[in-house]
Design a protein that fits this description.
Elongation Factor Tu (Ef-tu), domain 3; 21 strands; conserved putative lor/sdh protein from methanococcus maripaludis s2 fold; six-stranded antiparallel β-barrel; alpha+beta
């Protein structure tokens, strides 16, 4: 009975101990210190920077000649095919000339008839002149004879022009190459009828020199301000993904190209193609080098996007003494750029606020001026020196381990 009476006391003691441990645990997790903040930094270093404008375009021959015909008819002969080399004046096709030969013969017959009528008119005019001088015919007959002579002369000129026109049409049955080059397109076959009543049909397309090509790249209006003649260009094509080709900007055309409210400008890039690897119509992924720096002082772009935690912002914005420290306003805004564009461009400098670690290991705002950017690193023209450590992100550690961290894009992130 004595042991049974002591058992309830054991349970009371166990329950009390459990409650005490729970209370201690809650107090520890609620009131433990905030711990320390670890900052991820990057050294300000020197290196090469290249700012690019990217675009896509199509590779075309510099001189692209479309060979057509001015007459209608049936293709009788073809003397060239795809990829055939041609020279200036070479015969490339023949249209059936039968109809135009018949027209020429008819015109020549009409001309001969007009010349015979002219001879008769001359004889009548001479006879009328003799009779008029002898006063055997009235002056009206004399005038009529010479008028008929002039009409016959005019008729001969008209018929002569008709013969010349028929001869030209006959000559046009033979199609010649107007330039030296290579046939890159053949649009007709033997026996096909071409009609030139409204528009001259295109029979062949000849590339004058495939060793010299050009890229017509569509550059967005936001980037066209940095593109100028003479800038170097690197580009790739899908056919040779591991090879980088080179060219130069030769012309920036002012005519806008608008497709679904997107405005682009045609930028012509000259390309040398000695090995004939580049073919007309290929799509080129173009990178125009608009600015380049060698051995430039640079920082990662994450340092420009870094925003300190709210607690650190409060300390920086309102230190003891009530006066605001330099850079506090920039800290409250998260170190945003004073330039309202999306990225530094060209040779212009823009102000930014970044954070470095001071002697006490605290973040310190620094105003800097930046230059060009390659999308990963940005040039620093003033405000920092080589070896400085700029903060790119921060992580808060507590007694229980990692609690959370700040994103380089701003705000506070929970893990």
């Amino acid at each position: 009975m004595a042991n049974a009476e002591r058992r309830p006391w054991k349970w009371v003691v166990f329950t009390a101990a459990l409650v005490a441990l729970s209370a201690c645990g809650l107090w520890y997790f609620k009131f433990r210190g905030e711990g320390s903040t670890q900052y991820l930094t990057s050294d300000v270093a020197r290196g090469d920077l290249t700012q690019l404008v990217t675009a896509t375009g199509q590779i075309n021959p510099v001189t692209n000649v479309q060979v057509g015909c001015q007459i209608s008819g049936t293709i009788a002969k073809l003397f060239v095919d795809f990829n055939s080399p041609v020279t200036n004046g070479q015969v490339v096709a023949q249209i059936d000339p039968a109809t135009y030969q018949a027209n020429l013969h008819q015109a020549e017959g009409d001309l001969a008839n007009a010349k015979a009528a002219l001879e008769l008119a001359k004889v009548n005019a001479d006879r009328s002149e003799e009779l008029f001088e002898a006063k055997l015919i009235p002056k009206s007959d004399y005038d009529q004879a010479f008028a008929s002579l002039h009409q016959a002369e005019a008729t001969v000129q008209v018929k002569d022009a008709t013969v010349e026109n028929a001869r030209v049409d006959l000559d046009r049955c033979t199609i010649y190459s107007p330039v030296d080059g290579m046939i890159i397109s053949r649009n007709v076959d033997v026996g096909q009828t071409v009609a030139a009543s409204l528009n001259a049909p295109t029979l062949f397309v000849i590339a004058n020199d495939l060793t010299k090509m050009q890229i017509d790249a569509n550059v967005a209006e936001a980037d066209i301000g940095g593109v100028e003649d003479g800038q170097d260009v690197d580009f790739t094509v899908d056919a040779f993904p591991n090879r980088t080709f080179h060219g130069k900007v030769v012309q920036v055309r002012n005519s806008p190209i608008t497709v679904q409210n997107v405005v682009t400008y045609d930028t012509v890039i000259g390309v040398s193609n000695p090995d004939m690897k580049l073919k007309p119509g290929m799509t080129a992924n173009v990178s125009i080098i608009i600015a380049q720096r060698n051995d430039a002082l640079k920082i990662p772009n994450a340092a420009l996007r870094y925003r300190p935690p709210e607690a650190v912002q409060t300390v920086i914005a309102a230190p003891a003494g009530g006066s605001e420290r330099p850079g506090a306003q920039a800290a409250r805004t998260g170190g945003a750029s004073r330039w309202k564009g999306g990225h530094p461009k060209g040779d212009r400098s823009h102000s930014h606020t970044v954070y470095i670690l001071d002697a006490e290991g605290k973040p310190k705002p620094v105003e800097i001026k930046t230059g060009i950017s390659d999308g990963i690193y940005t040039e620093v023209t003033d405000g920092l020196k080589e070896g400085d450590k700029v903060i790119t992100s921060a992580t808060t550690l507590q007694a229980g381990g990692l609690r959370g961290g700040t994103s380089p894009f701003g705000g506070f992130r929970r893990f």
